[in-house]
Amino acid sequence: MNLDLGRAVADAVLYEGYLLYPYRASSSKNQARWQFGVLSPPDAEAAGIGESSSMAMQCLLSGGLGDRTSLVLHLRFLQLQRRQVLDTAGEPVARVVVGDTTWLSWDEAVDHEVSFTVSGRDLTNRVAHPVEIAAGEDVEALVDDDGAPAGTMVRRRRHIRAEVRLGVEDVGGLHRLSVEVENRHVGPTIDKDDAIAHSFIGTHLLIEAHGPTFVSLLEPPDAATGAVAGCVQRRCWPVLGGAPGDTDLLLGLPIILYDYPEIAEQSTGALFDSTEIDEILTLRVLTMTDEEKAEARATDPRAREIIDRCEEMSPESMQQLHGILRDPGALDPMVSPSMAEPDWPMATDVRDLDAATFDTGDTPWWDPAADEAVRPESDVVVIDGVSVGKGSLVRVHPNRRADAQDIFFADQVARVTAVLSDVDGGTHVALVLVDDPAADMHEWYGRYFYFAPDELEPLPIEFTHHDKEESRP
Question: Minimal CA–CA distance to 29: which of 296, 351, 293?
Answer without folding.
Answer: 296
